[in-house]
Design brief:
The complex is a heterodimer of chains A (153) and B (498). Chain A has 153 residues and is mainly alpha-helical. Chain A folds into 2 domains: 60 residues; 67 residues, no CATH class. Chain A contains 5 helices and 2 strands, in the order H-E-E-H-H-H-H. Chain A has a two-stranded antiparallel sheet. In chain A, strand 1 and strand 2 form a beta hairpin. By secondary structure, chain B is an all-alpha fold. Chain B has one domain. In chain B, 73% of the residues lie in helices and 1% in strands. Chain B has a two-stranded antiparallel ribbon with strand order 1-2. Chain B is globular, with a radius of gyration of 22 Å. Classes of the chains: A mainly alpha (153), B mainly alpha (498). At the A-B interface, helix 1, strand 2, helix 2, helix 3 and helix 4 of A face helix 8, helix 9, helix 18, helix 19 and helix 20 of B.
Chain lengths: 153, 498
């Protein structure tokens, strides 16, 4: 059975619902006249588990009926997903250590390759334009005290 | 009389040179980002939210109002020129607006949309000013039980009315509610879902959540999917509508304004329904309905006015009750709360400058759009022609730096990765991440009032059914749920039998 969007919905609901119920239970339910910190997480999480289960049963029924649903993850989107998230992560890792300009450069250079066929010469141009624009807006325009270039490991 | 005094006070706040400048900046930036293909108002507002951080409450709220209208206007521009609606409500404008653009009348379509929106916005502003004081005094009498029931209706009816089915709609809203409980519990002070991270003690950061769920997730799914074809600037045509356009448009604008003003107040019904029903009305009463879909100017004027009137009156429940009726309103409410402004029935009495300043700023924002942005149309068209792989790296850089400026913590950047991934998963699952925001904002409100109501009634849940206003809200919620689930069951049966 492929990971179609209906099944994915069921799994998301079941996972987060279960976490909310299990963790929320530990916060204490309290009693009706003084509901505890865990009451709302357990209530919302429980409802999520119920909806997730209903969704799972529907998906199985549809599967039995021979319905074929397309995969929720088209292969064309896997590359952007990983590269974009990696680019943001790199920005987070670098910003405190090397300053705004290098971190931004890394972010742009990595995310550039999320789309296939990006050219190197164009990348240099984009880097220059985007870094200049963003530094102009945030550092000079809004006056936010960034370290433009730093070296702290 | 009182009305004019209040509006005059608002005008005084709104037209100080510095606030006017912020309004102008908001409108311009909102249009500039909102006009980008595939970038709807929700993404625009969340991207620009960090820019308002250092400002005073008044200035930031005025700038947000400007961003809100700029984003909406940018969205209609993209619908008309590129046939790519940023959100459901501007999908209707695409039908005839884009046909007008293809016939070389994009300028007239944009002008009619802007002028119609301005008229609708003016009427909407007056309605808020008129309905505000009496409604606030009714809302002052709401207790915890009424609030809990009202939030329940708002959440349920919005969740049930979105595409993708009632299970997904309600589920995503519940998911948002669960995330909304993270951080310290207001009633007991207990830290929830912090998983030992000190950064989580204040809960999930609203701006990070919005940027991750919308901007980052949208970029990921947009790369790789083909973009629409932009109409080149040469074909914009004359900006000023013809005499015939005016003759056909003004009744449509009036009808759209009336319809939109009414529908905008309802939770869940929102913008999409107002513009869609305005289009249906225009088409059904037209003498030659065949013109619709071929570039009929009424098909632009009606829905655009309805859309703008509704987005104005949607502020009524948001500002007066503190309960947003749509995901975009939830985003605006969240933005207000970041700045320490708590909308609700007391806002008008406690912060009259802020309240009336905002109301008048909305109108000023509308005016600025007509006066300044319409002549700048050539510039927006040029933005449309920037290739997407240039745009997304800029938007991504803007998003990361913007998020980082708010607290200078790289924890926020890692959260951005998490919410970007979650937003992408939700989109892949066919769930609307906008409902997540609604649940996230309304969840804590529901919890607080629900718990307080239960405490006041000494643990008796009948309190929600004994009080007439609360009972009405509960019944409304049940009716919405029944109406959607029965049609859902019927469709489910049809699927099985097929």
């Amino acid at each position: 059975m492929t990971m179609n969007s209906e099944l994915l919905t069921a799994l998301i609901f079941l996972f987060f619902g279960a976490v909310a119920v299990v963790v929320g239970w530990g916060y204490g339910l309290g009693d009706p006249s003084a509901l505890g910190s865990g009451a709302m997480p357990v209530l919302a999480g429980g409802a999520l588990v119920i909806l997730g289960t209903a969704q799972l049963l529907r998906t199985r029924a549809a599967h039995r009926a021979g319905e074929r649903l397309a995969s929720a993850f088209p292969s064309t989107e896997l590359r952007p997903l990983l590269i974009i998230l990696a680019a943001i992560l790199a920005f987070g890792l670098l910003i405190d250590r090397v300053g705004l300009i290098p971190a931004l450069t890394a972010l742009i250079a990595i995310s550039w390759f999320a789309e296939t066929g990006g050219r190197w010469r164009e990348l240099a141009l984009v880097l220059l334009a985007v870094v200049t624009l963003i530094v102009a807006i945030f550092y000079f325009g809004l006056g936010i005290p960034f370290r433009l270039v730093a070296w702290r490991f | 009389m009182d009305l004019f005094a209040s509006l005059a006070m608002g005008l005084q706040v709104a037209v100080t040179p510095i606030n006017l400048l912020y309004c102008l900046m908001g409108v311009t930036l909102g249009t500039a980002i909102g006009v980008l293909p595939g970038v709807g108002p929700i993404i625009t507002i969340s991207l620009l939210l960090p820019l308002t951080f250092g400002l005073s409450p008044e200035a930031s709220i005025i700038m947000l109002a400007g961003i809100f209208y700029g984003a909406a206007y940018g969205g209609s521009t993209t619908s008309i020129l590129v046939n790519l609606p940023g959100e459901a409500s501007s999908a209707v404008t695409c039908i005839d607006g884009h046909q007008m653009a293809r016939k070389g009348r994009a300028g007239a379509a944009l002008a009619v949309a802007a002028l119609g929106s301005f008229f609708a916005g003016t009427v909407g502003t007056l309605i808020i000013a008129l309905a505000g004081p009496p409604l606030a005094s009714i809302a002052m009498r709401f207790g915890a039980a009424e609030y809990a029931a009202l939030v329940f209706v708002a959440l349920l009816s919005t969740a049930a009315m979105t595409r993708g089915g009632v299970i997904k709609g309600i589920g995503v809203a519940l998911l948002g509610m669960v995330f909304g409980t993270a951080g310290s519990d207001v009633s007991t002070g207990m830290f929830r879902f912090t998983f030992g991270m000190a950064e989580m003690r204040d809960g999930v950061d609203f701006a990070v959540l919005a940027v991750g769920l919308f901007a980052v997730a949208e970029i990921i799914s947009n790369i790789g999917s083909p973009q629409g074809e932009a109409v080149s600037a040469k074909n914009i045509g004359r900006l000023w509508p013809t005499r015939d356009d005016f003759r056909r448009s003004w009744p449509a604008v009036l009808r759209g304004t009336g319809l939109g003003s009414l529908l905008g107040v309802l939770p869940g019904a929102g913008l999409a329904m107002s513009s869609f029903s305005a289009y249906m009305v225009e088409k059904s009463i037209a003498k030659e309905p065949d013109r619709f879909g071929q570039g009929a100017v009424e098909g632009v004027a009606g829905p655009e006015s309805a859309n703008n009137a509704a987005s104005q009156t949607a502020f009524i429940p948001t500002l007066l009750l503190g309960v947003p009726g749509s995901p975009t309103m939830a985003l605006m409410l969240g933005a207000f709360m970041i700045h320490g402004v708590q909308p609700g029935p007391r806002m008008m009495g406690d912060h009259p400058q802020l309240f009336w300043g905002l109301i008048v700023s909305m109108w000023v924002g509308n005016l600025l759009l007509v006066v300044l942005n319409l002549p700048l149309i050539g510039l927006w068209v040029r933005l449309l022609r920037v290739p997407y792989h240039w745009l997304y790296v800029f938007v991504l850089g803007f998003a990361c730096v913007g998020v980082f400026t708010m607290s200078s913590s790289h924890f926020d950047i890692y959260s951005l990765v998490f919410f970007g991934a979650l937003g992408y998963l939700l989109k892949a699952a066919g769930c609307n991440p906008a409902l997540f925001i609604l649940g996230f904002i309304l969840g804590p409100m529901f919890e607080e009032n629900f718990r307080r109501a239960m405490t006041l009634s000494r643990g008796d849940p009948m309190v929600f059914l004994e009080r007439p206003i609360s009972l009405t809200f509960v019944l409304m919620g049940v009716a919405v749920l029944l109406a959607t689930t029965t049609s859902f069951v019927r469709r489910g049966r049809a699927e099985v039998t097929e």
